[in-house]
Amino acid sequence: MDPKPESTDEAPVDEPDRTEEPERSDEPDRTEEPDRTARLSLFEPREGEAPPEPPARRRRTRRVLLWTLSVLLVLVLGTGGALFWAAEHYASSVARIPDAFPTAPESAQPKPVPASGLNLLLVGLDARSDVPTTGSRAKAPVWQEGAARSDTMMLLHLSEDRRSASLVSLARDTWVDVPGHGRAKLNAAYSWGGPALMTETVQNLTGIRIDHLAVVDWNGFRALTDAVGGVDITVPRTIEAVGEARAWEAGTHHMDGAQALLYVRERYGLPGGDLDRTKRQQNFLRALMLRIMDSGTLTSPSRLGGLLQSVGEVVSVDDRLSNADLFQLAWSLRSLRPDDVRFMNAPFGGFDTEDGQSVVLLDERPAAQLWEAMRNDRMPQYFQEHRAGDTLGADVD
């Protein structure tokens, strides 16, 4: 009989069950979830989106986008370039006045008020100092000492938002202090010291800092009036001829440049003399403005350029106004309407005689209120509070 196998205390070693758990690895299991970082195309769909377009269609879409962006870029640059060219071309015809501002130290001049609009001094001359030669067109006037006295002085205030404009005429015989010359008529300042002395005199009188200056001879407006096709001016009552002054029949007259020039230069036969003449000048400017606005000139860059070219034949401005500044200034007025523009004379304080001269005095207290309103861009409020002021009405003799 065979002997039984000897017993042992060691447990039998079981073979591992290789079906229970798969062999692990340090490498990530790439079959669990797709790698979303590989989706770099803008045209690759996200989960739940439609399948991608075919490659040919994607390429065609990209080309369309690129062409569209290119055309838009060309249009933007082309328009900007055209406007820049217009500004340079047309505004270059406007002559510039050097040394048009006072040389007095800043401490001796009115302080500018920030964000308070723009103040321009408009000076009209009674004689052109650069008489054109035969066959040539007259250019904007250039000052020569003693050659001409200013016939008209107007302060033009443009509100900061360009929604209103106010034009105040200063009588040429206004009795004022002219720096370095003592008391004299206002129009003498231009004769003695040109634009700079005129600007300083007006600044001292009003306490308003002048931002820009424009000088024109009324003769020049003859060509400008013809350039816009004439203006319509209503004469409220028949005016008989007096001396060199012509007669005017009551009614609306369509005036060409020559007729408009006669209208603005006359003062004989008018009850208020020079004061009424300033109203005629304002009435003419109002009619000219209406003509320009009705033609859509201010809302068309091309027409605006043509206007600047015509203005350049008769007006000169200070050299602080660049071509781009001049074009931009004109363009900024495109939303202005005739009802937004007010005309008036400076408050009149009476006539007097000084050194044998007939002079005009300002009514100082109302004048101070006017200058304060203009200085602080409050002209609409001023006109509401002073309805009885010497404003330009519908009827002008």
CATH architecture: 3-Layer(aba) Sandwich
Radius of gyration: 39 Å
State the CATH class.
Answer: Alpha Beta
The mean pLDDT is 77
Q: Could you walk me through the main structural features you see in this protein, from its secondary elements to its overall organization?
A:
With 397 residues, the chain is α/β, with parallel strands linked by helices. It has one domain: LCP protein (Aminopeptidase, 3-Layer(aba) Sandwich). The protein contains nine helices and 13 strands. The strands form four sheets. It has a seven-stranded mixed β-sheet with strand order 1-10-7-2-3-4-11, with helices on both faces. The protein is globular. It starts with 54 loop residues before the first helix and ends in a 12-residue tail after the last helix.
